Amino acid sequence: MNLKIRDYKPKDFEQVDRLWKDTGMGGDERCDDNKIIEQTLNLGGRLIILEDTFSGDIIGTSWLTTDGRRIFLHHFGIRPEHQGKGYSKKLLKESLEFAKSTGKQIKLEVHRTQNLRAINLYRKYGFKYLGDYDVYIIRNGFG
């Protein structure tokens, strides 16, 4: 397979959205649309695409956003049929290089019971568990 790492283009959204839904990282309740992606990119983020250049299929993503203090790693995943082939390492290395270039810390959240393979990858690349933090979110706005 010929793999290429590149930056997101708006025309990628349909494939990216499908990948996120197929991997459990997406869904309409998350409100991740092209407009939100573009906003995060304009604020200094990056959405990295792992593409099969032969077929044109997007097989992985790594969405990095910033609050000005930290880089947040979101929606890091590989299409289910391509998992276990080492592609995530290539994608994570590129993500960490981007974060390093900003001079900011990098932070991520991962489901602890559903993603043992991902947790092991993140630990291998230097991520440390922060402890007993609980994460809360309001998804449906404030109205």
Textual characterization of the structure:
This protein has 143 residues and is of the alpha+beta class. Helix content is 31%, strand content 24%. It has helices at 13-22, 34-42, 87-102, 116-124, and strands at residues 3-7, 46-52, 58-66, 70-78, 105-108. Strands 1-2-3-4-5 form a five-stranded mixed beta sheet, sandwiched between helices. A hairpin with a 5-residue loop joins β2 and β3. The mean pLDDT is 89.
- SSE class: alpha+beta
User: Percent helix among the residues?
Assistant: 25-40%
Sequence of secondary-structure elements: EHHEEEHEH
Q: Whole-number average pLDDT?
A: 89
What overall form do the CA principal axes indicate? Answer: globular
Radius of gyration: 15 Å
List the total number of helices. 4
List the uncertain runs.
none
The main sheet orders its strands as 1-2-3-4-5
**Termini Cα gap:** 48 Å
Largest sheet: 5 strands, mixed
List the quaternary state of the chains. Answer: single chain
Q: Percent of residues in beta strands?
A: 15-25%
Q: How many E-type strands?
A: 5
